Amino acid sequence: LIELGGFLPSNPLYWLCFNKTKKNYVKIINKLDDDLIISINFPATYFVSKAKKIKQIKHVYYCFEPFRYFHDRKFFSTAPFYIKFSSWLLRIIFRKIEVKSVLLADEIICISNFIKKRVKEVYKLNSHLYLPGIKNHREKNELNALSLKKRFNISEDNYIIFALGFSHHLKGARELFYIFKKIINKIPNTVLLIGGLITKENYYIMLELREKLEIPRKNVLFAKFVEEKDLNYFYSQSTLTFYTAIEESYGLIPLESMKNGTPVIAFEGGPSETILNGKSGYIIKSNELNDFSKKAIKLIEDKSLHENFSKYAKKHVKENFNIEKKISELESILRHLL
């Protein structure tokens, strides 16, 4: 099993050397003694499709989502200008070969039913479903090693809403702040803790809305990049986790939060397949910001309800998304394909 590829390279030099890169990939693939190659995203799908012309291999496209730069009009039409321009240029040059390379794959595995439906719409192909899992094991006493309230100087009687993963313009930075404003109007002792990768555009949007909506600076804290070893502390010591990404393909953040017993509120899409609505968190229709904030206030104020959600979230992840169980499922799918 050989895994190739990754996300779209952003360096223009990569695309200027694309033909040379393709030749190198094909040369390496042809030297491998393999039965099955899994490609993730374009251009890896294209490289494998070219190699298949030379050697007999099984090619599985492991699809996180149909390439957003080519197929998601909402994504590229609402993007910053430089992304609009680059995606327009890349669509002209590469869209046809991206589609053709996917059509030449022997099988497609999708990470959610939401993406499975998109694959059918974009490529007119059927696919297999595999919902990824997460590690459920935690070291003993791990959760007592760090105190968020001490690290960020948060009062003991404050509630913490944790949000992270604002890596592009459809991650819901604007929505997050409008929702939070409604919450602190009702519960002033609530703190929004934002971590993870934040694009420059999203960071400026957040700063602008903090001032525009007159949200006190002490109520919005930036944790910057959170190391993987510290993520459990952030989840477990937060009251809620918000996942405001728009039409997200899947998202591991809700699973990681629920593993730690912290309920999640998210917009519909891929998270609809991991969060049990009304049991381990809430799924909200896109742009329903009032409903989002009302559900959050309800969970903050009703301690008994929050405790029930917390217990169910842990149980749900342990029983349905344990990494060992999910690896076994993927292995079964791949054996069937071979």
Description of the molecule:
By secondary structure, this protein is of the alpha/beta class. It folds into 2 domains: 2-133 and 327-337, 3-Layer(aba) Sandwich (Rossmann fold); 142-320, Rossmann fold (3-Layer(aba) Sandwich). It contains 15 helices and 11 strands. The strands form 2 sheets. The protein has a 6-stranded parallel beta sheet, with helices on both faces. Strand 2, helix 3 and strand 3 (58-63) form a beta-alpha-beta unit. The radius of gyration is 22 Å and the shape is globular. The protein starts with a strand and ends with a helix. The model is unreliable at 1-7 (pLDDT under 50).
Highlighted features:
338 residues, alpha/beta, Rossmann fold, 2 domains, six-stranded parallel sheet, five-stranded parallel sheet, 11 strands, 47% helix, globular, Glycosyl transferase family 1 domain-containing protein
Largest beta-sheet details = 6 strands, parallel
Oligomer: single chain
Q: How would you classify the helix and strand content by structural class?
A: alpha/beta
H/E topology pattern: EHHEHEHHHEHEHEHEHEHEHEEHHH
Low-confidence stretches: 1-7
What is the correct CATH architecture of the largest domain? 3-Layer(aba) Sandwich
Average pLDDT rating: 91
CATH class of the largest domain: Alpha Beta
Instruction: Please work out how many helical segments DSSP would assign.
Output: 15
- Could you please say which CATH topology of the largest domain applies here? Rossmann fold
| DSSP helix fraction | 40-55%
Query: Strand content of the residues, in percent?
Result: 15-25%
The termini sit apart by 11 Å
Radius of gyration: 22 Å
Shape: globular
